[in-house]
Every structure is written in structure tokens, then in C-alpha cells.
Amino acid sequence: SVSFSSRSVAVPGVSQMRVSTVSSTRGGVGAGFGSSSLYNLGSTNKRISLGGGSSYSVRSGYGYGGMGFGGGVPGGIQEVTINQSLLTPLNLEIDPNIQRVRKEEKEQIKTLNNRFASFIDKVRFLEQQNKMLETKWSLLQDQKAARSNIAPMFEAYINNLRRQLDGLLNDKGRLEGELKNMQDLVEDFKSKYEDEINKRTAAENEFVVLKKDVDAAYMNKVELEAKVDALTDEINFLRSLYEAELRELQSQISDTSVVLSMDNSRNLDLDSIIAEVKAQYEDIANRSRAEAESWYQSKYEALQVTAGKHGDDLRNTKNEISEINRMIQRLQGEIENAKAQRAKLEAAIAEAEERGEMAVRDAKAKLEELEAALQKAKQDMARQLREYQELMNVKLALDIEIATYRKLLEGEESRWVQSV
């Protein structure tokens, strides 16, 4: 505690004495200061100061005190003698500065009291702040320990996400390789399909040409059949003609024989002549018939060979066309299967890419969230460290100020003790 007091004593007709004391205690230590001033109200305006005592005590109540005054010797009660000349009326003039000095001293005393009170309040406030800072420091230590436990969990989770991301990237590379292989396979099938389309076009063109040849062969066959019919009709006509001529010749021969038989007087061998002529005509008819039959047979065989050849060519062409159609259908089925497989693979690749991109985006989002949380935690930790550093700086400044005030008080107390 700190206290300050002032007292004034005025001796009527002689002087005025003012006594002021200041005392402070801290931790069982008490100190006091007193001063007494004696003002002469005469024209000389001389001031006599009395210096008071101070006491210092620790637990046992040890005290020390001393008194002193200017111009006097301390001791017991002395006999006081009054100079009678002092009782005579004096021509006194009041110093106009006394009131002002007294007011200034009173204001200074109030200011000192207020400063000491504010100093004590500040010391108490700083002690409370020190306790609060110690509490915050302990809390920050606990939070730091807790955060140090959370950091490995974050690192483990981030490492897990990174492993998942690496796995997805590996799957993406593998799927890209499979996609490239499938694209190469599709290109191969596409080239084969184009080759088959070209072969089909060539086969269709060849089929058209063969169809034209077949049509021409069929027309030749029809024409040859018509010629065969015409030749058959001609042969039949010639045969009937030859038979008619033969019958006519036979009738002429019979008529001639009759005539010759009637003219037997000439002795002609008509029978031999008729037989010879008949043999000649029969030979001519047989040769003509044989030639006609052989020519017809040769023509017929030639037409049959030609028709058979064209028929074989037509059958071969039809078989080739059927085989080409079957091959085209088989290739179309393979192409459709390849297209379906390609579409399925493209859908699977697109789905895998979408899943991979979604997983990568999710992993990146989670990684960004974790990095943001980690950054926020680091910022919070840095902010708390700054606050802690500021609090430590404030605490250090307060400790220094408290120590300074303590040293000042102890120095002042020691100085007062030494002065006493």
C-alpha cells in the first residue's frame, strides 16, 4: 500500500510549519517519508525544513527511525526560551507566492498519489495479464500437442490419396495403351473392310461381266437351238424331198421297165441298167443322208459342247457368286461384330476415362481441401505463435517494467534507509 499525507503547523505570530509524509509498503516492507517546513513570515522569507524518519520492517517488526532538523541538535526535551524581542509587533508582509506554492505542492501531492495508485493498479493488471498469458501459453502448448497429433493423420491421408492418384494414373496409362491397341485393331479391320469392299466391288463388276457373258451364251444357245431346229426341219424336208424324188425315180424306173419290157426285141439288159441307176441314186441318197446326218451331228455336238461349256461357266460363275455373297455376308458380320466391339471398347474407355477424371478431380479436390486445411492450420498456428510471441513480448516488457519499478522502489527504500 502507498499513502501520502501532509500536515502544516503554524505558530502564531512567529512561523508556519508544514509537514508532509509519503509512505509505501510492498510484500511486508513499509517505508515512510516526512518533511516539515517552517516558514518565517518575516521579510527575509527563510525556510527551515525538518527531515523525518523512515522505518523498515521484515516479519519480526524491526524498525529504524531518525529525526533531524536544520540548525538543531536531536536529543531529549530542551528548555525553550523565548526571546522577548520576538514578541514585539513586527512589520509583516505576506509573501504572495505562498498560496501559489501551497497549491502547487498540493497538486503535486495529488498527482503523485494518483500516479502511485495507477502504478499499483497497473501492477495488479499486469499480474492478471501475466496469469492470463500463462494460461494461454499452457492452452497453446496443449493445442500444439493436439495439432502435432493431427499432422501425421493428414500426412497419412494425403499419402493415401497420392497412392490412389498414382494408381489411377497407372490405370489411365494402361487404358491408353489398350485404347491404342484397339484403335490399331480397328484400323486393321477398317483396312480389311475396305479391301473386302473393293473385292466385293470387283466381284460385282466381274459378276456383271459374267452375267453379260452368260446372257450372250444363252442368246447363242437360243440361236443355236433355233439353228438346230431349222437344220432339223431342213433335214426332215430334204429327207422327205429325197424320199419323194426316190419314189419318183422308182416310179420312173418302173415305167421304164414296163416300156422296156414291151420292147424286148432290142435285147437290152434293162434290169442291170435299172439296178445300176437305182444303186447310183441310192448311193447318192445315202451319201447325202450320211453327209447331212454327220454335219447335223457335228453341229449338234458342237452346240452341245458350247452349251455345256457355257453351262459349266455359268454354274461356276453362280458358285463363285454364291461364295462371294457368303464371304461378303461373313465379312459384314465380322465388320458388324468389330464395330460393336469397337463401340463397346470406346464406351468402356470413355467410362474409364470419365471415372479416372472424376477420381482425379475428386482426389485433387480432396487434396486441395487438405492443403487448404493444412494451410489454414499453419496460418492459425502462425497466428497463435505470433499472438504468443506478442504476449511473450508484452509479458517480457511488463516483467521488465515491474522489475524496473521494483528496483526503483527498492533503490528508493534503500536510499531512504541510508538517508535515515
What do these coordinates show?
This protein has 420 residues and is α+β, with helices and mostly antiparallel strands. Helix content is 75%, strand content 9%. The protein has helices at 97-262, 270-419; strands at residues 2-11, 15-25, 30-40, 47-51, 68-69. The chain has a five-stranded antiparallel beta sheet, covered by helices on one side. Helix 1 (97-262) runs antiparallel to helix 2. It starts with a strand and ends with a helix.
Flag low-confidence runs.
Answer: 1-76, 256-266
Helix/strand class: alpha+beta
Number of helices: 2
Strand content: 5-15%
Shape, principal axes of CA atoms: rod-shaped
Helix content: over 70%
Q: Helix and strand succession?
A: EEEEEHH
Quote the average pLDDT. 70
Q: How are the strands of the largest sheet arranged? A: 1-2-3-4-5
Question: What is Rg?
Answer: 76 Å
Number of strands: 5
Sheet having the most strands: 5 strands, antiparallel
The span between the termini is 21 Å
Which descriptors would you attach to this protein?
420 residues; five-stranded antiparallel beta sheet; 5 strands; alpha+beta; disordered N terminus
Spell out the blueprint of helices and strands:
Layout (H helix, E strand, L loop, with lengths): L1 E10 L3 E11 L4 E11 L6 E5 L16 E2 L27 H166 L7 H150 L1
Antiparallel strand pairs: 1-2, 2-3, 3-4, 4-5
Helix pairs in contact: 1-2
